[in-house]
Amino acid sequence: MDATSLPKSPRGMDRALHLAMGFGVFVLFAGMFVPFPSHGFAYLYGFTLCLPALILIVWKPGSVQTLWRHRSTKWVVLLLLWSLLSLAWSTDRSVADWLGRYVTICLFLYAWSRVFEGREHRVYGFVLVIGAVATVAALAAFAVHEPQVLDGDRIQGFGRLSNTNDAAAAASVLAICLSVIPCKETWQHVARWIMVAVLIAFVCLTFSRGAWGSLFAAFVVVLFCRRNLLNKKVLWLLPVVILVAVLVMFLFLPQLTARDWSHRPAIMLHNFHTFLLSPWIGIGQGTPVHFYVDSTFIWQAQNMFAQLAIQLGLPGLILFLLIWLPLGWRGWLHRHEPLGCLVLALWVFTTLQGQVELPYLIESPSISWLCAWLPLVISYSLQPKRAVESP
Fold this sequence. Notes:
It is a single chain. The protein has helices at residues 10-30, 38-59, 65-68, 71-86, 95-115, 120-145, 164-180, 186-206, 209-225, 232-235, 237-251, 253-258, 264-277, 304-333, 338-353, 367-378; strands spanning 291-293, 296-298. The protein is an all-alpha fold. Strand 1 (291-293) and strand 2 form a beta hairpin. Helix 1 packs antiparallel against helix 2 (38-59), helix 4 runs antiparallel to helix 14 and helix 9 (209-225) runs antiparallel to helix 15.
């Protein structure tokens, strides 16, 4: 790199760091769909997102105020500090690894606030680009896997989405985002609905029942958030969505019932008993939540809220609810705005899907990690409101 390619002013340096962080956020999301070696992916988003964010914080410490002024940031910091403290009684003593995960969460929130906050057009463009990446990955999965629908063969993604439930959740989140964002150009409308159709087809062929139900609920929320829902041009969408959902359920009923309850009642009961063993402080961050149901090995709580309650006790669960419940309320207050509708729809999806999957909130970046933190960072662009708007 020669001298002419380097930023020649503080403003140029600031712009270069913001561009780097924007690319880092793209890498973080795209890496969910593109197969990378685990360590290679960590090094990549660390170099493209975390490093520029750290440099900008050191260079401009006051820039942290952009993130710190949000009330939720205080609760996030307290939650991470409590999680750090719980390592003292955890069986997982890899403190350095957990510190790295905590820093990654904070730097992701910071980078998003610096790059996207107050710039809705950037959010919309970002969703279209990531949606295109996810759609290509879904089409590649169709081509490689060729699921036998009648045999209930479940399609899956690549890399971090090799688990069918994770793959379904990732495709669902992108389908929700694409269905909400406004598009100005005709080609954008056509492209985004093609992408939504491909992603929904992918979700259907995962046979992830939790994702099906959560995605349906999120789409109903999107329809009711529209101001012109009572307009005859829009009213027909709701019964169409319901009819399609019923037809899909009827068509795939044998595949959906073949797995029975997937041990969910027994898992819920075990989670409750494990929580009661240490309800006040939890068993500690990183302590494995492993057990057997009959002869089936269960390697996590299968529930985001239960996983938090078991590992971090009531303080951890309450701190998370102090982040999560106001987030849903903010989405409701702004439900008639595109980003507010998106926050509310993602909040509903993650809340429902989090009851049966998406267990990891505090971890290395993964799909459950993004499902939880994405609606929070999008909410940064919502302006404060004192009263609920009338429909």
